[in-house]
Amino acid sequence: MHHTNTDSQAEPWRPRSSAARSSSAASSPPPPPTPTLPAVSARRLLSAFTTSQQNAAATTVDLSSDESRRRLLNRLVYRSKQRGFLELDLVLGTWVEQHVHSMDEPNIRALLQVLDLENPDLWKWLTGQEQPPEDLNSNPV
Fold it and tell me: Residue 70: which CATH number?
């Protein structure tokens, strides 16, 4: 069962010339159009994003009843554990879960400021890779 190569005179492989490539490219169909959102959908998406940004910035601190306090603290724990940055979710979420129930209104407002910060910056500051800005250094949380 010994196989011999009878095609010893075959030409070695070479890339096609640029003329051959351009002629085959010219005959290929154009790429499909890039999908775009209809103007109404784009406006709705932008409006939803803007609304969520405004809601995050306008979080009210209502400690008038046990129920409103419980809801606020649950929201803060959720925001600290579901940031989309696993390491930060674990570190910040655990800390907030352990401390948020003993916080007064000024500390809750300070925590809200921290939760509004960008994930990469917050992670660098918490791990000591960079020094936080002075106004953040004075934050009691």
Answer: 1.10.150.250
